[in-house]
Write a structure and sequence with these properties.
The chain is mainly beta. It is built from 1 helix and 14 strands. It has a single domain, classed as Sandwich (Immunoglobulin-like), CATH 2.60.40. It starts with a helix and ends with a strand.
Length: 180
């Protein structure tokens, strides 16, 4: 009888060790959410459609071409394509400004959206080769009837290696979307 218990004990211990090893190997790191991602507040629907890192941005406004470059040499823009819709109010005034949209990185540092029509734009005749053409921007005031919305780009100036974690809209509703 003693001999029968020893092989059974060895098999049980070997099986437990194998299960622990497999459990440790199967643990995977969580993946970033795929875009697009949407969320709703009391009034607005808010979606992040896409995100891309760009060195500079060009756009045309009233037949004039502009370029926007980061204010710091080691910074880039995290261009974020958003969709905001009026889900419940008969009529709503959406006012997108610096404090309306923010991006929070993996280190919990927040970045405010920048004004694409502000002082950091320059009129140009030819777009630089490394510039990304983007349009339209969501910036300023929009009167939205119920069931209607706007889609466009918002820019965040960030250090080159910044990894986005959350984009938050804070206009009437505070709506957060995990992006990384």
């Amino acid at each position: 009888m003693k001999r029968a218990k020893l092989p059974l004990l060895s098999i049980t211990l070997a099986s437990m060790a194998l299960m622990l090893l497999l459990a440790g190997c199967s643990k995977s790191t969580p993946k970033a959410p795929t875009l697009p991602q949407f969320n709703r507040g009391n009034t607005y629907g808010f979606g992040v459609l896409s995100m891309k890192t760009v060195k500079s941005v060009t756009y045309i406004d009233q037949d004039t071409t502009y370029v926007i470059t980061p204010s710091e040499p080691n910074n880039v823009f995290l261009a974020t394509e958003l969709q905001v819709s009026n889900e419940r109010a008969v009529k709503s005034l959406l006012d997108v400004k610096t404090t309306s949209v923010e991006m929070i990185d993996k280190n919990a540092k927040d970045y405010q959206a920048i004004n694409p029509f502000g002082d950091n734009r320059k009129q140009i005749s030819t777009a630089p080769p490394d510039s990304e053409p983007l349009s339209p921007f969501i910036w300023g005031q929009f009167e939205l009837q119920q069931g209607y919305g706007v889609t466009g780009w918002v820019l965040f100036e960030v250090p080159k290696d910044t990894k986005a974690a959350t984009v938050r809209g804070d206009e009437v509703d505070t709506i957060s979307i995990d992006v990384g």
